[in-house]
Amino acid sequence: MGxxxxxxxxxxxxxxxxxxxxxxSERRHLTRIxxxxxxxxxLDGKLHRAPISDDPQMWYRHLGDVKxxxxxxxSRPHDLFKDxxxxxxxxxxxxxxxxxxxxxxxxxxxxxxxxxxxxxxxxPDNKFDLIHIRAMAGSVPDWVVFHKIALRHLKPDGFVxxxxxxxxxxxxxxxxxxxxxxxxWWELFKAMGQKMGNxxxxxxxxxxxxxxxxxxHIHKEKIKVPIGPWAKDxxxxxxxxxxxCFLLDxxxxxxxxxxxxxxxxxxxxxxxxxxxxxxxxxxxxIHSYLYL
Length: 292
Description:
Strand content: 5-15%
CATH class of the largest domain: Alpha Beta
Number of strands: 8
CATH topology of the largest domain: Rossmann fold
Largest sheet: 6 strands, mixed
CATH superfamily of the largest domain: Vaccinia Virus protein VP39
Structural class: alpha/beta
Number of domains: 2
Oligomer: single chain
CATH architecture of the largest domain: 3-Layer(aba) Sandwich
Radius of gyration: 19 Å
Strand order of the largest sheet: 1-6-5-2-3-4
Mean pLDDT: 81
Shape: globular
């Protein structure tokens, strides 16, 4: 997380848009709910970790103040925008998305803007108290440049917060074979990112990029999120369930177009790979996890 006095924690770029296969509105809404619910579970029901609170003695600023302004740059978590606007009714909450799929009903202090964050920002400098970035892997060509722009648009004591779920599956007990489809997934998306010019390692480079952009008071947090309900701990088991639902619901459309159009795989090879990936994701003997 970063402040202009930051902690660390994305929108769709044209390159990301090319990878997004069409989905029905019902499935799209379910994916959003799974995504939002999973993050709420992992973050202890909190919408953010930036130190903003109703207790001014504990934190630098509280967003209940009139004229506070928040910008969300996220991959379709419209429920997050709305929940944040409900929690801070005095704050102006702006959500940006490249796709015009905004909900019809939103709180009066919340508005959605169809825009591309890689183009010139249509906001004055020193406007925002908080810029919250979430699930933007593969969307930004240069994260240092992006965070320099974000810094310019923050108020002097504002915060940037970036939350990213890594695509690199890991295991601590040797149950994830190095030749598995889950391990190959990360290598494939690194190759896609190189060809597109947009890294998928947004979480991995977030802290470094925020620091290089000129922020101070940087805080980094890494959380292990199981893939599937294999963990013994009740809380981790629940996280793993939501993570598995999120991955199973979203990876087909995302991977299919990217692997065929960017990497040039034939459709039959992609389908065989995705079938193996599904099998591994559901295998309780593979104790894999992703970092948030």
